[in-house]
Specification:
heterotrimer, A mainly alpha, B mainly alpha, C alpha/beta, B: mainly alpha, C: Rossmann fold, Rossmann fold, 2 domains, five-stranded parallel sheet, four-stranded parallel sheet, 17 strands, 18% strand, globular
């Protein structure tokens, strides 16, 4: 009985983890290139969720088709925010960027609340289910999982196989050196910020495919915290590391429930959350560069 | 002699603000609770500044120390309520327990997390905060998510009138005292070896190490001091003034972010900065809530973005540059 | 250039600073209280985490105040008819703001009564201030029973106590299906959710149900799969649970995702809101929820006459009309609006009975007050706890909310057992034959 449940939960965790990973890639990318922690991260996820909701409910557009739209919108948003504030703060103390990105988050939340209201919303996109015996997986969740994996793969290829990607990586490793070698560092910064926000907004689309309900302007806060933890698991500055960090996180969150349920007197669900944060601390202590790094 | 006194000039503006606030609150009807809110924000900024401002480390889980401080006071009141002889001593016991719990937590966190730097440190402290909250809920420690509600306990111990005065007035006075104490400690640190060591650390941690400064020791001193003040603020403002504890409310990360905003608006690492930041933050929030209910955040967020983009060093940083070589420079640090 | 710019910034900053100082020091001259109005003060939650419920409450209060002023003609006191005035600020759902705004309402605006902010925590935060100022404090958003065990003298509750949320549901199922045995309880891990769960647990045992599953999930979860998988394997007949809005939607959605079919599913807070069905559509068919009030309840002047209780307030239709006007949107009010609105009526009635605005006298009058309004019955015990109001249970039947319990408030029969999720996705609706 327990074994069956555990297997089911692990499978669910893997699917969820892929989406979590997707939701963290943008954060890692921005941190990797610009050394900025985007504290307003969750708000951009929320924007993606609202884009999907709006396209689906108003025009009946398939959430998968919302992805390119969300990506373009996110890129635009990223560019606006970059040129409005981030560019001036590149050499300012770390704290200043924390605050500014946090304020971006609030601003987005309040604007969305102003337009859509504070209601909890959802949409209903039914594309069948897969019964795996130990658990049931709706197809929409599978699309979100595979879509996320695909994005991670594309990002990996782009970073390693294209000129622009390699230039970006050179900035991550040594921005002065890259400048000397003729890389347009300012342009790379702007583009990376926009790309990071674009990915984050897309992850909002993926998340609603996984959980298409409870969409509201303040939904992002919890995801910001989770993304921080996942980013650390993946080494903080590596976007595809973040993807694997997400997988690990999803497995732990879902998998440990069955184990904690065996202990009397505790609430297993809250304990799974405790475990994921305790693990974060342990990893930071033992291997702060992330589980996957070879350093 | 005079030189010695000059060292303490910067306390004059800080204390003037606090005394002014106190008298405005005491004498203008209806102002006390606003003053209480401003004092809370000033105290929060001042306490947080000791660590964040002086070391440049961003402790995102700062609110956890306020949380355990709140629990310290709450536990003292609920567990010792049956001892009648204690009387007002129960508050003292509460503060002692709050102090003890926040010190222990800061020792544990300091030993683990302070080895990390930058974003890694920030995220580790988030982990501490969230982990603690879920541990309390999950393992059902201290009544778990049902929390503790103890108005009737305070009433029983102190009598209704004293209890009312405590919850609506004296708790705020305690916050004022804590804020003032934090200011004194900040200045003391700034003017002692600790301050110089921490400045070196903030500029370049590795270079400071090479120069033979025991960086870790000073970091931990600042960290523990700051955390203890957080515990005291929690005990006064969240346990005595708000006589209940629900875990999600006392570990709410929003408060850390508010503290960061206050410190940064005013100017990190300055003495007067957190006071200026707390006042600006509190007053603008209050009047936005009064005049444009429902839209204050929509207005507030762009203002923060503009201020930070124009003055990344905060308002005090800007003032400091401006008055660098004038007589006022003695007062502004 | 650079220097000139900096100077300009400095100047503007200086102006802002002096302005603040000016505002702070110069507002002792508060408006004098005019005896020709009665003011209700409210540190509302228009933004922050309780924005959704807060918006409804403000709409409900405005609606009933408009009704009192325009239809009822004002509050009858000392021979005159006095209009109500509503004074509200946004507390941002934050405790620091709640106390400072309550103090402002009492001393600067000189209101006659304070309505509490949403949630038990914020209500408790404000209580010491109102108690020490001997100001009546009416609670429409804090359901925690413990608030009324603290010895407060000026708090009066309109929302019913949390421990009774799921009692009606269990009574109903016992009656419809005497053979149903296995109950699963899965609530949010919060003071409110826990209290509802304790109440449901006690009542289930009393009615002879077996509790086969009892777990909580933390606030703010975004995936309930592990909990629901465990719930599924305990094979319950009936599932009771919930906590707030977003987790309620999630609960139902993931039950559907995991194909957990039960005879009855009842969720607190979320399930009866229109947004719930909009978000879930056919998956919500047959899902139930307890509610303090739902559009469609049958309370009316005739009912009141039959029961021999006074009636006050707008009819249900009038209330809904006034509510829509107040919020400026075409939305049906939910129970947060209704309970806040009913609280206005309770206050008006008590002021008239006491023939005074003195908080002590009005509090005494509230203690004796018994009336019916569109919201239902209203009566408190000596601690201020609401005991007169009974909850209704609503069920989604073909995209409409039907009140299925208690029998005297019914607008339709309950559909039981709930259709399976695969039947629902094929278009089956939960309409009884």
């Amino acid at each position: 009985m327990e074994v069956e449940q555990l297997t089911g939960n692990l499978l669910q965790g893997l699917v969820l983890g892929a989406v979590y990973g997707m939701a963290t890639m943008g954060l890692s990318l921005i941190f990797g290139v610009l050394r900025i922690v985007n504290v307003g991260h969750g708000a951009f996820i929320m924007v993606g969720a609202f884009i999907t909701l709006w396209l689906f409910n108003a025009f009946g557009i398939n959430p998968l088709l919302a992805i390119p739209f969300a990506f373009m919108f996110g890129m635009g948003l990223g560019l606006i925010f970059y040129y409005a504030a981030i560019r001036k703060l590149r050499n300012a103390p770390e704290l200043a960027t924390l605050l500014v990105t946090f304020s971006f988050g609030i601003l987005l939340e309040e604007v969305v609340k102003f337009i859509f209201g504070s209601e909890f919303r959802g949409y209903n996109w039914i594309v069948g289910k897969v019964n795996l015996g130990v658990t049931v997986l709706p197809m929409s969740k599978m699309y979100a999982c595979f879509g996320s994996a695909l994005v991670a793969l594309l990002l990996y290829l782009w970073f390693n196989k294209t000129r622009a990607g390699v230039a970006m990586r050179s900035v991550v490793q040594d921005s002065e050196g890259a400048r000397v070698c003729g890389v347009n560092v300012g342009g790379v910064y702007a583009f990376s910020f926009a790309l990071g926000i674009g990915l984050t907004v897309v992850s909002g689309v993926m998340l609603t495919m996984f959980i298409p309900v409870g969409i509201n302007p303040y939904m992002g806060g919890g995801y910001t915290l989770k993304a921080f933890v996942i980013a650390v698991l993946g080494g903080l500055s590596s976007p595809y590391g973040a993807f694997f960090g997400g997988l690990i996180f999803g497995l732990i969150e879902n998998g440990s429930y069955t184990l904690f349920a065996l202990i009397p007197g505790v609430e297993p669900f809250a304990m799974t959350r405790f475990l994921s944060f305790a693990m974060l601390l342990i990893i930071l202590l033992i291997k702060p560069t992330g589980l996957l790094s070879t350093k | 002699m005079k030189k010695k006194l000059i060292k303490f000039y910067p306390l004059i503006p800080v204390f003037t603000v606090y005394i002014l606030l106190f008298f405005i609150g005491k004498n203008v009807p209806g102002m006390w609770q606003l003053v209480a809110m401003l004092l809370f924000y000033c105290a929060l900024g001042q306490a947080f500044n000791i660590f964040l401002g002086m070391t440049g480390y961003v402790d995102f889980g700062y609110v956890a120390f306020m949380g355990v401080g709140t629990y310290g006071m709450a536990l003292a009141i609920t567990r010792l309520a049956s001892i009648e002889e204690l009387g007002i001593g129960i508050i003292v016991a509460g503060f002692a327990l709050a102090l003890l719990m926040s010190t222990l937590l800061s020792l544990a966190v300091g030993a683990v997390a302070l080895r990390l730097r930058g974003a890694y440190f920030a995220i580790a402290t988030i982990g501490v905060n969230e982990g603690l909250r879920f541990l309390i809920e999950g393992a059902r420690i201290w009544n778990g998510s049902e929390g503790l509600i103890f108005v009737s306990d305070i009433n029983n111990i102190l009598g209704r009138d004293t209890a009312d005065a405590l919850m609506t007035f004296w708790a705020d006075v305690m916050v004022l005292v804590i804020a003032a104490l934090a200011a004194v400690v900040t200045l003391y640190y700034m003017r002692s070896k600790i301050g110089y060591a921490l400045t070196a650390l903030r500029e370049d941690e590795d270079a400071a190490k090479v120069m033979g400064i025991n960086v870790t020791k000073y970091k931990i001193i600042a960290f523990i001091t700051s955390s203890c003040f957080a515990g005291l603020i929690g005990a006064a403002s969240w346990a005595l003034k708000t006589p209940y504890v629900f875990p999600p409310e006392v570990f709410e990360i929003q408060y850390t972010i508010e503290a960061i905003i206050i410190v940064l608006l005013g100017g990190a690492g300055t003495l007067l900065g957190p006071v200026a930041g707390g006042l600006i933050y509190g007053i603008s929030k209050y009047y936005l809530a009064v005049y444009v209910p429902g839209f204050q955040l929509l207005i507030f967020a762009p203002i923060i973005i503009v201020i930070i983009t124009l003055f990344p060093e905060g308002i005090l940083g800007m003032l400091k540059n401006r008055f660098q070589n004038t007589g006022l420079a003695h007062f502004i640090i | 250039m650079e220097v000139a710019m900096k100077r300009k910034y400095f100047k503007t900053l200086f102006i802002i600073f002096t302005l603040f100082l000016f505002i702070v020091s110069g507002y002792a001259n508060a408006a004098a209280r005019s005896p020709d109005k009665i003011q209700i003060g409210h540190p509302a939650c228009l933004s922050g985490k309780y924005a959704k419920a807060g918006e409804q409450a403000v709409g409900g209060i405005k609606a009933c105040i408009n009704w009192v002023n325009n239809v009822y003609g004002g509050v009858k006191i000392k021979g005159g008819k006095v209009p109500l005035v509503y004074k509200f600020y946004d507390s941002e759902s934050k405790k620091e703001s709640v106390t400072s705004l309550i103090a402002r309402l009492i001393t600067v605006d000189k209101v006659n009564v304070i309505f509490s902010p949403y949630s038990s925590g914020l209500t408790l935060r404000g209580a010491p201030i109102t108690e020490s100022r001997r100001m009546l404090y009416m609670d429409h958003g804090g359901a925690n029973n413990k608030i009324f065990q603290q010895g407060f003298r000026y708090i009066v509750q309109t929302i019913g106590p949390a421990s009774r949320y799921h009692e009606g549901t269990l009574d109903m199922i016992r009656m419809i299906d005497p053979k149903a045995k296995r109950v699963a309880l899965a609530y949010e891990d919060s003071e409110f959710g826990k209290m509802v769960m304790d109440g449901a647990e006690k009542h289930s045992k009393k009615l002879g149900f077996d509790i086969v599953f009892q777990r909580t999930y933390p606030k703010g979860v975004t995936d309930l799969t592990p909990l629901l998988s465990a719930l599924k394997s305990s094979k319950p007949d009936i599932v009771l649970g919930g906590g707030h809005f977003e987790d309620g939607q999630l609960f139902n959605r993931q039950m559907a995702d995991l194909d957990i079919n039960v005879n009855a599913l009842s969720l607190i807070a979320a399930a009866t809101l229109p947004a719930f069905y909009e978000a879930l559509t056919n998956m919500a068919e047959g899902v139930m929820g307890p509610s303090h009030w739902e559009y469609g309840v049958k309370y009316s002047t005739e009912e009141a006459k039959k029961a021999g209780i006074d009636w006050i307030g707008p009819s249900q239709e009038e209330f809904v009309d006034y509510f829509k006007k107040a919020v400026g949107k075409d939305i049906v009010p939910d129970y947060h609006a209704a309970e806040a609105g009913a609280q206005v009526l309770a206050y008006v009635k008590a002021v008239e009975n006491a023939n005074s605005l003195n908080s002590d006298k009005v509090r005494k009058a509230l203690g004796k007050l018994k009336f019916m309004s569109f919201y239902g019955n209203w009566e408190i015990d000596e601690t201020g706890l609401q005991i007169g109001h009974s909850m209704v249970d609503a069920q989604w039947q073909n995209s409409k909310r039907v009140i299925v319990w208690p029998i005297e408030a019914q607008t339709g029969e309950a559909y039981y057992p709930m259709p399976t999720f695969s039947d629902k996705s094929k278009g089956k609706v939960a309409v009884p034959e």
